[in-house]
Amino acid sequence: MQHKAELMDQAAVERALVRISHQIIEKNHGTERLCLVGIRTRGVPLARRIAENIRKIDGTAVPVGELDITLYRDDLSRIQPDPRLNGTSVPFSVQDQTVVLVDDVIYTGRTARAALDAVMELGRAARIQLCVLIDRGHSELPIKATYVGKNIPTARDEIVSVRLAETDGQTDVSILRQEAPGEKQDK
Fold it and tell me: Is residue 174 part of a domain?
């Protein structure tokens, strides 16, 4: 992979998450019957950061769950013959709640579709909203995020790399480009 451009530094990510946190409170007229569910892997720390922002803004502790969508993917047989499960932990009822699914990047919409299926198995939520840090375009399904940190049009051969301190040791968002066969790698 070749680094193409840095899109967001740590401060920009934090600003986007604070803005999203305000939008969640405003759209839902407060935090009553609200819960956040992070899609593994990077959606989980993002959901926790948003919950902390909401606590600072509104004084309310919003419950946060973790969702593993591995078995709900429609491309599971193509990407991994022996899937590794990381576990779902939603220690609260989603019944009649507004569930905000949180992920780092929306690309084709297939991860979001799988997450919807997983949440529906947990119970009948009043509403399900989708929050992403980055919307990179190229949706293949009629799924659109309710809350977006940043829209970044990308080419299909580009990769949006979201790094978070909790999982990667630092926080930023970059675009990486796959090297063409025979292309020299800069060192």
Answer: no
Domain membership of residue 109 (yes or no) is yes
**CA 153 – CA 151 distance, rounded (Å):** 7
Q: Nearest to residue 45, comparing CAs of 150, 165, 132, 160?
A: 165
- Over residues 111-123, the pLDDT tens digits come to 999 999 999 999 9
Q: What is the value of pTM for the model shown? A: 0.90
What CATH number should be reported for the domain holding residue 56? 3.40.50.2020
